[in-house]
Amino acid sequence: MYPPRLRHAALIIAILSSFMTPFMGSSINLALPAIAKEFKIDAVILTWIPTAYLLASAVCLVPFGRLADLYGRKKVFVFGIVAFSLSSLLCALATSAFQLILFRILQGIGSAMIFATGLAILTSVFPPHERGKVLGISVAAVYTGLSLGPVLGGLMTQHFTWRSVFLVVLPLGIAILVLVLWSLKEEWAEAKGEAFDLRGSLIYGIGLTSFICGVSLLPSQESLGLLILGAAALCAFVMWERRTKSPVFPVDLFTANRVFAFSSLAAFINYSATFAITFLLSLYLQHIKGLGPRDAGLILISQPVVMAACSPVAGWLSDKIEPRIVATAGMLLTTMGLVPFIFLDQGSSIPFLLTGLVILGVGFALFSSPNTNAVMGSVEKKFYGLASGAVGTMRLLGMMISMGTATVVFALFIGRVEINEA
Predict the structure, then answer these.
(1) What is the DSSP string of 318-355?
(2) d(CA 370, CA 389)
(3) Whether residue 94 has pLDDT greater than 80
(4) Which end of the chain has the smaller Cβ count within 10 Å, N or C?
(5) In this structure, are residues 147 and 117 in contact, taking their beta carbons and an 8 Å threshold?
(6) What are the φ and ψ backbone dihedral angles of 42, each rounded to 5 degrees?
(7) What is the value of pTM for the model shown?
(8) Do residues 390 and 375 touch, judged by C-beta distance below 8 A?
(9) How many CB atoms lie within 10 A of CB 246?
(10) How many Å apart are CA 384 and CA 141, to the nearest integer?
């Protein structure tokens, strides 16, 4: 049992880091039209600004989770905070869309280090009977970041420039770094002494990158080759992991651990179905309804506000009730929340749109922290970093599929048309 001071410090650090990265993600969605206008880019290229970040995060989460278990979760977390903060500064200084996408990749790598370790550290220092509660608080911080992101992102984009969205996270990154170095004297590396599977990590990275890029390039001819390469590399990765002595990702976690496997799959499905909604609604509200970034942000804030309010309760419930029951109820509500968007058109009212967002918010809150609690509680301590990375990978892979689907829709029905203000 760790002393209360260390546990409280770990929780505060987890809250701040859990707030920072989603704040960036949600605020940049409101800045996308302004970025498109300044760099004169079309909708297909524009989607790569969030997509590049998500792809880099998805590729790096599992390897960094394994590295954290081997060499220390605090070390990897510190490197992640530094990389994320530095890349945010570089994004603010970007002079072209290419540079911005490149720096977003670096930002995604930093985010992967943070997510692969922050959750694992939190799980390491709190006992199982309190895990759901603290995970719920951490998830509430995520959704608070998602809530404030559209508001502050819209305001900063409208009154300053989109570059201010990247600059605003720098003080927070520095504060987190100081807190970690000052208050976390412990290190967690339960798998210390085992080897790191570099070859498996490279095969995994090639496979995942190729597959996601192939999905994003649909329906072009280039996509088929990338999809085939991605599928072949991922199959080779599974075969390699089965026979290597120290795998980067033990395949047995999926084949022999049903709780881990089905909870991870549920997270993938949930995010695949919902993530692109904020991106699409941002463009819908600003270019179809003619709203400014600030007003669009105030509407989009409703979903994460509900998530932030309900997540601590959902986490607490998962300590008292079987987590999968709470998570299943959340997924059912999320499905119901998607229904109103099927009928969205130019004449749809704002209350109609808000109804769907609120239902989605409650559903996501009931799903997220109980699902994470189930995953982290299903593995040994030496796999906490890896499990945390796997949770993040399923989430980000679902986000990538969602954004890839949005890209395909743009390519098929809109084409490479430059985005202009309504």
Answers:
(1) HHHS-HHHHHHHHHHHHHHHHHHHHT--TT--HHHHHH
(2) 17
(3) yes
(4) N
(5) no
(6) -90, 175
(7) 0.81
(8) yes
(9) 14
(10) 21
